Amino acid sequence: MKLERTHKIFNPPVRTLMGPGPSDIHPRVSAALAKPVIGHLDPEFSNLMEDIKDLLRYAFQTKNDVTFPVSAPGSMGMEICFANLVEPGDKVIICRNGVFGNRMEENVKRMRGEAVMVDDEWGRAVDPQKLEEALKANPDAKIVAFVHAETSTGASSDGKTLAALAKQYGCLTIVDTVTSLGGSELRVDEWGLSAVYSGSQKCLSAPPGISPVTFSADAIEKIKNRKTPVQSWFGDINLVLSYWTGSGKRSYHHTAPVNAMYSLHEALLMLAEEGIEKAWQRHKDHHLQLKQGLENLGMQFIVPEAERLSQLNAVTIPEDKNEMKIRSGLLQKYNLEIGAGLGPLAGKIWRIGLMGHSCNQKNVTLCTEALADLLQNA
Amino acid sequence: MKLERTHKIFNPPVRTLMGPGPSDIHPRVSAALAKPVIGHLDPEFSNLMEDIKDLLRYAFQTKNDVTFPVSAPGSMGMEICFANLVEPGDKVIICRNGVFGNRMEENVKRMRGEAVMVDDEWGRAVDPQKLEEALKANPDAKIVAFVHAETSTGASSDGKTLAALAKQYGCLTIVDTVTSLGGSELRVDEWGLSAVYSGSQKCLSAPPGISPVTFSADAIEKIKNRKTPVQSWFGDINLVLSYWTGSGKRSYHHTAPVNAMYSLHEALLMLAEEGIEKAWQRHKDHHLQLKQGLENLGMQFIVPEAERLSQLNAVTIPEDKNEMKIRSGLLQKYNLEIGAGLGPLAGKIWRIGLMGHSCNQKNVTLCTEALADLLQNA
To answer: Is any Cβ of chain B less than 8 angstroms from the Cβ of A65?
Structure first.
């Protein structure tokens, strides 16, 4: 049995990544990736795992004991939150204002829970009043799920207010912070979030493939009191914890992606060196610069200013312009990636990311100038 | 909210990995890991994905269209096979001769299937006669699952015969090839295997974290005709395929671990350069050398010669020796990792891997000499 294609060593182009993720990786983080692999049960790796958990707690601003990186992408981090918290028959209120609310609904259905959808316009924050109405109308709801930073639209929702409402009506929360972690204010403990997942490849600027998660004590209590087993063996928190709990008596669950953990560690270390509040501010500052540049080129933000994310800038495409041609032009001429619209916004917007290591003055200038060139000449 | 621990850059020790995986990584594969990240929807990445699929088909010896790397460790590859093939109520015959048969049972239960266990002694191959009896006794069984190469014991089962029996009784097969892929004879098409999963970190010698899988046309047909949705959104083959199918109309499913895919590609390229049969033979040759050395030191293989894997050597610990002390000594004095026993074999055996890039003359000699030293002096 032979090969069908001709093969050679792959040398990727050197892009500047200003799409919805992955973001650019700092040389320190790349260097960490290529360090020698060690066993996933090596005492040195156990030590690294403890460091990662501590650094993740800092990034999430939490003291949650159960805080660790899932060995799979953010979509699996999402699934792990739903698979562990939702039991068959559980009613889950899902605030939907973009693509990832749809995905939450899919998750609840597959866990045989009942999804109650609360819809907001794409490009707007979740409306707390609508959530409160849904909570009143569904006193048997057990969980509220929402996306803190909607990557498909660039809208930021008020996590603190939504979580407080959920708590007031006796619900736990599942919160998507894939795009917010490290890029905009997120305070898991102060806001009282219950189960929170994120991704390595957005504002943390580690390579894609890992999903940091954190669970509050009351979320863990619900998981421990389940009447049915968690549907996923790989994602069963009870089993994963025996591996991630450290403290000398770790037992084998799966083989962790050792090198990916090196790079996540280095990226988290750099975040701690910068300071989390300073990282949030950096995203805001460069967003304001980029905003100026984009508006000068005639683009409009689809999200109202007060609900706008710094790290994901969703803007309209100037009329009569061929969006695909311009996006390809940016890639070919400038090696610059920006993102297209998703779902109903496909072809209507661009999504320009300013995430983690990609969020700097050089990139703001490059992006503005390259867009100016192609809007005029493409 | 502050950090609890003091943090610094992590520099792993330079180990020689001769445990049950991960195995050592070739410098070409490490270098690939650190290449610049590109977007997971970049046209260059699409091209790389097609290359990886072709190289994986070669490694698996299959023409299966649905052959791709799952963006998560082997345990998730296993779960994806069970989640897609098993519907609630489906009867699955599981041949169990080690730890991973237990895990298959857990998977079937969580998919609400019915598991029929066929037990063989740990350290022995699966007995085809027992499987045939189970198939006769369970004419309603739909799937037979077995582990081709049991990493917990070092036993190799006769995949060809077991699959032929399953087919004769109208069953599909789910086959664990985590430790066999690239290290010992495996011919997915010729043997007629239906759903097959593996891992990146064993005989392929890529970093841990990716699970190559392949599905036959009849497996895909069963998946397409399911009456119930696949329990896992992340693992639903119908959705994953829209991303991995390539051919210009790829749609977003999850963000692939881009750098891990670079390294898998490079490792598969090296396997193709060597030639798959030559790689199998290399594992066999070095195994015979290691066997000689270990037997000279008074160790015995727990698996009969005809059922023995080359890449995983499970041997008894010489009497009166403190296994933990010797294993730690190997790590401290020689930076050499070997594996401990799992489950009922914990404390009773060592598992010495000769996998992929770790399988070479230098390592055979090192391991034999280092063990000789510590058995005498520890």
So the answer is: no
